[in-house]
Amino acid sequence: MTLQSLLAITPFPAVSALLLIVFAIAVLYLARASAHTVILTVCQAVHDALRFATQSLAAGERRLTARNHEVLLAGGREAKERIVERELERVGDSVHKDLGRYPALQRSLSEAITRIEEDHARAVEVPPEPPGWVKAVEALAKLKVGNDYSVGPVLSNIHESLVTAQDQALTAYRKASAERHVLLHKMMPHWRTIQQTLTRVGKSVDGLLERSRSIDRHLEEYREIVSGTDRAVAVLSSSSLVQFFVSALVLCVACGGAAINFSLIARPMAEMVGGTSFIAGFRTADIAALVIILVEVSMGLFLMESLRITRLFPVIGALPDRLRVRMLVVTFVILLMLASVEAGLAYMREILMQDELATSQLLRGGAPLVSNDYLWITTAAQMGMGFTLPFALVFVAIPLETFVHSLRTVLGLCGIGVLRVVRLLLQLLGSLFLQTGAALVRIYDIPIFMPLWIETAWKGSAAQRAGAKTRTESKRAEVAR
User: Fold this and answer.
1) What is the DSSP letter of 31?
2) Domain finish residue from 372, 388, 418
């Protein structure tokens, strides 16, 4: 039924339109309660569904947060265990190296102290005893000589003897002092030996104390990690993010080195395996060069695992020491052979480039190329790069391990962020649907405002009449009482 047919129900279109409007308003007014119920029910259902989805996302976020915390704490615990283990090994080596010689040091100190005591005992100054003629002089001094002239020569002889004895005593005293100085001078090397020994022991003890304080600090951090404190989680999260970006930067640098290595060996590999053959749309030479580089990286991983620098493969670290050393030697030999092959390929690349230049020059009809005396510099540089880059790629295992371990944490943090954003959007969308239901109810009431106004006015007048009737009845009741 078209609009024209609806307007043709009466001879006058305006009257027909008015009748249709009145009929629509009446229908909307009569269906008002049901329409409100449907609108509110639908919006409430959508809101409840979004709220349920929000709760599910919140539960998933909590589980992911707990899982991320477990991964962080497990990684931090393992890292701290490795650090503490290495510190304890260093302390053990220091104790074995420095304090293991303590008996010899003690014996050396005892011998030096004994020699010093002996020299000191011999260097003690003994005061000389007074000579015997002192008493004779005292006795003569008490005599009353009077006019006896024979006493003068006696006193003169005594004076001469006294001077001679004084000179002899002074000479003996100087000789004894010189001997004591010689003994004291001999004591100086022993004092220096004791001082150097005690200084060395003091340095060793200070080093042990410093390492013990470092171990105490690491153990305190380990206790916090085991306890799962918020501070430990925050520190591990920030550390993991820093390690992720740093290791990613180092891996990008390693990829650049691998690209340079690829360019060095791709051209000569085309001469070895053929430059016209393809595998799955890729040149066989490029695939062969890439395989060589990947094998070198794999050998580097195995080499680092054998040295127990990285722990990507626990099976290798758990091997017996003899078997692990054999694997280390085999891996290094393979890596050395691949590096030598790359050096040869780099040399072959330079020869091929010179041949191509000479051929193109002859085809253009120009003069033949003059031999360059400095060509060996570029050749040696390319060979050195071809031999060195494989060994440089060995160290990719260290940032790779850090990147792999920190990637779990970063992915967990990204997942938590995504879940949090989606949960917030769903909460906003649920609130929007709830408010939309109320707005649709108001919008539904706009076309039927006239019947609603009449209904409100009638209900108001009815309420007034009911109130007046109630007041009248209450007054009658009061009069009756």
Assistant:
1) T
2) 418
Q: What is the DSSP letter of 368?
A: P
Render pLDDT for 443-467 as a digit per residue (tens, 0 to 9): 877 777 777 787 777 877 777 777 7
CA 248/CA 250 separation, integer angstroms: 5
Q: What phi, psi does 387 have (nearest 5°)? A: -85, -30
- On whether both 239 and 163 belong to a single domain, the answer is no
- pLDDT tens digits for range 274-330: 666 777 777 777 888 888 888 888 898 888 888 888 888 888 877 888 888 888 899
Q: What's the whole-model pTM score?
A: 0.62
The answer to whether residues 240 and 175 belong to one domain is no
- 455/449 Cα distance (integer angstroms): 10
Domain membership flag for residue 312: yes
Distances from the Cα of 372 to the Cαs of 177, 345, 376, 377, in angstroms? 84, 21, 9, 10
Q: Which domain holds residue 302?
A: 230-418
Does residue 380 lie within any of the structural domains? yes
160 and 270 housed in the same domain: no
Domains in the chain, number: 2
**Burial level of 296, CB count in 10 A (0-12/13-18/19+)?**
buried
Query: Quick one: residue 319, left, alpha or beta (phi over 0 = left, psi -120 to 50 = alpha)?
Result: beta
C-alpha distance from residue 331 to each of 161, 300, 304, 326, 393 (Å): 97, 8, 10, 9, 14
Claim to verify: residue 272 and residue 175 sit in the same structural domain: no
Token pair belonging to 104: 């010899």
Q: Is 365 left (phi over 0), alpha (psi -120 to 50) or beta?
A: left
